[in-house]
Amino acid sequence: MTVPVLELLGIKRVYKTAAGELNVLSDADLKLQAGELVGLIGPSGSGKSTLLHTAGLLERPEAGAVLLDGIDCLKLDDKARTAMRRSKIGFVYQFHHLLPEFNAADNVAMPLMIAGVSRKAARETALELLAEMGLDHRADHQPGQMSGGEQQRVAIARALANTPRLVIADEPTGNLDPATTARVFATFIKMAREEGASVLVATHNHALTTHMDRVLTLEDGKLVPYEPE
């Protein structure tokens, strides 16, 4: 049987607030196979970002397991877990988090150079990804010289630079116009269908979900199939 790219088992996530403990995730389970494109929708505050951060090894749950290619990442030490995240996961945040002192090409090339790829080869890959995003003419511009939508597309290109096994995107097209949204989503589809990545996208854009293999939502801290009203 094929090992899932991502498997969440019994994930529990609790936040302490002034009013007491807030159970955000309760025994949440998820399996993503290679080449699968899955949507996650739901209102703000339902736990979508928490789930994505847990799956992306950015937050540690109170209970449960996070497996990448069958490896239980929560049993790894911090260094090994960071290496796993850098080599296997591409994360697209709601906000771009670009390095302001570097131009677009260098921002995209950064994960590759951290992984040991030469600067020349990393830049070539960065330029290809920027062209795919319609930003080849912005390669030498710094983030402050670009619009918010352009910066977000640079961030998406950066997340895909290492050809990750798992792409996690948290409202990746929230600040983009419809034409750019379509271009970005086509890139996610290509990652899944042609490169075999698992892609998990949280979105408020229900139109995008028609192109996904499955759509999930969170109810009482658990992942369940989304049923349109």
UniProtKB/TrEMBL annotation:
Nucleotide-binding among keywords: yes
Keywords: ATP-binding, Cell inner membrane, Cell membrane, Membrane, Nucleotide-binding, Transport
Any Pfam family: ABC_tran
Coiled-coil intervals: none
Keyword Transport: yes
GO molecular function, one term: transmembrane transporter activity
UniProt-listed GO biological process terms: lipoprotein localization to outer membrane; protein localization to outer membrane
GO cellular component terms, semicolon-separated: membrane protein complex; plasma membrane
Every ABC transporter domain range: 9-228
PANTHER family tied to this protein: IMPORT ATP-BINDING PROTEIN, LIPOPROTEIN-RELEASING SYSTEM ATP-BINDING PROTEIN LOLD
Family, per entry: Belongs to the ABC transporter superfamily. Macrolide exporter (TC 3.A.1.122) family.
UniProt-recorded name of the protein: ABC transporter ATP-binding protein
